[in-house]
User: Which sequence fits this backbone?
């Protein structure tokens, strides 16, 4: 062996020993922490109700420790599916809907218990001199302890992945917080907040690089990552993901395992070909890329496995990004959004702004610094990244969140910081993964809990997703030809829908070579069926109204958005009795925490088959926006569809340049990029049945109707009414 080989071998041996030493130290830290946690129930030095909190959490952590030991010994792998479900139920006991109202995980319950204890203590102070301050401190302690408990659930995916170096700090955080209450008096809430703050801040140099690597590095073996050494028929593999495994998840996996090979192949090909078609349509070089990230819901593994095989045939290795389990890994306001259905969506909603504990300028500055360093260290991996291929889902039971006044919330200053952070995050990703070099695709599948008709619906969705692109382009081009000639578009609702909107459109300087609308078929947004544009803001005005709509799984009743010169001016809904509460609900969940947004998109959906299928099964309100936006005119608030790609010209199949790529706000991108983007885009669809009239209004005042009373009336588009006729019009022919 020459000297170079000896040196290399010695270096590798030294690295191995160092890794083994670090792993041993982490295991020791975990064992020491668990020894201390086991003693908590016996420690009566902590006053009530805080002793109860630490006992409840200790019970959860002891179950976590038992799971970890079972995984290490191999015993867990021998357990039956029912036994794994029982273990999971024990771990998630306090989060489950039947227990959550009286759990410390519930901010309202936690704050109430702390306030009640403070009220008992105040009875000895008849003057009540410090009552208000003490009650505020008690409320804050309850909020922080509830957030601490929620963060401890990050231990579960880390446990299954055997990431001891990440588990140890979380356990030590819990003990550090516990120590504050063993000093004989109740700590100030600010003292507890500081502990949580520095935990989040200090570990950014670890959590950010780890997360970035997980988002960019492909799997060594997709099959191993999906099935963990089990056969796909043995559904126990699902529990090794670390996510919550719902009945819906199990039923999905069981259904896909029973799906005939040709149906599975068609579903997978639609997805992977849509991704490749996106590159072709935008004139981008897919051959320069080598990785693609598949984002999916647990239970869809068989479909993901086939998609990975098809992507491999395109020269792409698959990345399976793990869920963002730790609080610092998530975008505030968006919840955990794990890769499995939540055991309790109210829990997710209550804790969506827990980052308020640490979200300040110092934290966001450091996180952005760590992100830049992480991407720079992985510049080559980022350059190989082709983009995300996203499998969305729909069919969950309707969810109307209860407002929890004790849940942590962002201040106005924190909202502004969040918007600035999102803008800088977008700039970082654009630097290392330029939008004009990448693409994406999105598809949506139903879940078994949508109803007994799930198998039939799944096959109908496959049919919707595989419409003839060439034929659809021809149909939609007739719409575009009309809209390119008009002055503006006008939309008026019917029945309960009070919509009245005027949409200003970009002027064409050379109609022979330019167009306003993109002819969108089944590529990046599956299924086919829309033409869309970026409205001119000045002159776009009126009321957008939808009687009832689901957006990101949340039900909005009587949603009203008033627009003047393209900007939202009034926001309301009918979910709550308090008007301000309704406005806040819209701001948080539609506006992305922006007080006002421009209308970034106007589109007309043409997928009447999707609308008919939704009507047949009675699931109109449950259809995801990806499909719903193709079932009527829709409007998006926020950035345009060409955000950060305005200067890269794209063309319709007829060769015309799509020039309506920006608006008066995104036009600021060259002089003031910080004012040009909102890093947000939210679609709202008006169903065909709620459209009284959608018209193209000419410069001379003439009007050409496109849709009247819910059906297409523009000559040449009558076939679009065929899927709807029997369901909505009693078989009446045009």
Assistant:
């Amino acid at each position: 062996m020459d000297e170079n080989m000896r040196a290399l071998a010695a270096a590798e041996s030294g690295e191995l020993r160092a890794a083994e030493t670090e792993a041993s130290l982490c295991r020791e830290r975990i064992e020491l922490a668990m020894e201390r946690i086991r003693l908590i129930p016996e420690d009566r030095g902590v006053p009530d109700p805080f002793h109860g909190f630490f006992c409840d959490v200790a019970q959860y952590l002891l179950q976590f420790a038992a799971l970890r030991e079972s995984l290490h010994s191999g015993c867990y792998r021998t357990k039956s599916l029912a036994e794994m479900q029982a273990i999971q139920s024990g771990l998630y006991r306090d989060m489950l809907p039947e227990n959550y109202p009286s759990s410390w995980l519930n901010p309202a319950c936690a704050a109430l218990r702390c306030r009640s204890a403070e009220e008992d203590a105040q009875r000895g102070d008849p003057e009540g001199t410090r009552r208000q301050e003490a009650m505020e401190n008690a409320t804050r302690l309850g909020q922080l302890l509830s957030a601490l408990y929620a963060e401890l659930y990050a231990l579960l995916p880390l446990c299954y992945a055997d990431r001891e170096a990440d588990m140890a700090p979380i356990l030590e955080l819990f003990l550090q917080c516990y120590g504050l209450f063993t000093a004989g008096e109740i700590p100030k809430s600010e003292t507890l907040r500081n502990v949580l703050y520095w935990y989040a801040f200090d570990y950014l140099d670890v959590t950010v690089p780890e997360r970035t690597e997980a988002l960019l590095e492909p799997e060594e073996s997709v099959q191993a990552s999906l099935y963990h050494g089990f056969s796909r028929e043995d559904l126990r593999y699902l529990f090794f993901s670390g996510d919550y495994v719902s009945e819906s998840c199990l039923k999905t996996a069981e259904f896909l395992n029973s799906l005939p090979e040709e149906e599975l192949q068609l579903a997978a090909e639609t997805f992977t070909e849509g991704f490749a078609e996106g590159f072709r349509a935008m004139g981008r070089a897919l051959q320069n890329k080598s990785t693609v990230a598949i984002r999916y819901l647990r239970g869809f593994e068989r479909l993901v496995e086939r998609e990975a095989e098809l992507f491999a045939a395109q020269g792409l290795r698959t990345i399976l990004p793990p869920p963002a389990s730790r609080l610092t890994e998530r975008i505030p306001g968006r919840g955990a959004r794990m890769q499995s259905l939540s055991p309790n969506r109210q829990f997710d909603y209550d804790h969506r702004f827990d980052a308020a504990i640490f979200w300040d300028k110092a934290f966001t500055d450091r996180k952005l610094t760590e992100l830049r360093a992480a991407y720079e260290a992985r510049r080559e991996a980022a350059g190989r990244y082709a983009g995300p291929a996203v499998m969305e889902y729909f069919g969950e039971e309707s969810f109307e969140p209860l407002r929890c006044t004790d849940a942590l919330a962002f201040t106005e200053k924190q909202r502004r910081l969040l918007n600035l952070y999102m803008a800088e995050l977008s700039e970082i990703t654009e630097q290392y993964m330029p939008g004009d070099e990448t693409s994406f695709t999105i598809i949506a599948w139903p879940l078994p809990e949508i109803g007994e008709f799930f198998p039939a619906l799944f096959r109908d969705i496959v049919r919707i997703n595989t419409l003839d692109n060439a034929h659809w382009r021809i149909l939609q081009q007739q719409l575009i030809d009309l809209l390119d000639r008009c002055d503006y578009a006008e939309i008026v609702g019917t029945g309960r829908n009070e919509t009245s909107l005027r949409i200003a459109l970009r002027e064409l300087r050379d109609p022979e070579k330019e167009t306003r609308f993109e002819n969108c078929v089944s590529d990046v947004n599956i299924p086919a069926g829309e033409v869309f544009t970026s409205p001119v803001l000045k002159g776009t005005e009126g009321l957008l109204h939808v009687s009832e709509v689901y957006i990101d799984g949340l039900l909005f009743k009587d949603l009203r958005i008033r627009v003047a010169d393209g900007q939202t001016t009034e926001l309301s809904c009918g979910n709550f009795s308090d008007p301000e509460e309704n406005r806040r609900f819209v701001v948080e969940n539609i506006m992305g925490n922006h007080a006002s947004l421009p209308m970034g998109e106007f589109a007309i959906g043409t997928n009447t088959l999707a609308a008919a299928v939704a009507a047949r099964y009675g699931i109109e309100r449950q259809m995801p926006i990806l499909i719903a936006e193709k079932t009527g005119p829709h409007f998006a608030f926020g950035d345009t569809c060409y955000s950060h790609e305005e200067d890269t010209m794209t063309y319709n199949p007829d060769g015309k340049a799509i020039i309506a790529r920006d608006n008066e706000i995104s036009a600021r991108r060259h002089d003031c990029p910080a004012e040009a983007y909102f890093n947000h885009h939210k679609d709202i669809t008006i169903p065909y049945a709620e459209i009284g009239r959608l018209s193209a209004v000419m410069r001379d005042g003439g009007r050409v109707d496109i849709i009247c009373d819910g059906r297409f009336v523009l000559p040449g588009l009558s076939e679009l009414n065929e899927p709807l006729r029997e369901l909505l019009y009693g078989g009446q022919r045009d």
Observations:
- The mean pLDDT is 93.
- The two ends are 86 Å apart (CA to CA).
- The longest strand covers residues 536-551.
- The chain is about 45% helix and 15% strand.
